[in-house]
Amino acid sequence: MTDALLRLEGVHTHIGRYHILHGVDFAVPRGQLTMLLGRNGAGKTTTLRTIMGLWQASKGQVQFDGRDITALPTPDIAQAGIAYVPENMGIFADLTVRENMLLAARSGDLDVKRLQWIFGLFPALEKFWNQAAGVLSGGQKQMLAIARAIVEPRELLLIDEPTKGLAPAIIMNMITAFRELKATGATILLVEQNFMAAKLLGDSVVVMDDGRIVHHGAMAELAADQTLQQKLLGLSMEAHQ
Question: Which CDD domains does the annotation name (predicted)?
Answer without folding.
Answer: ABC_TM1139_LivF_branched
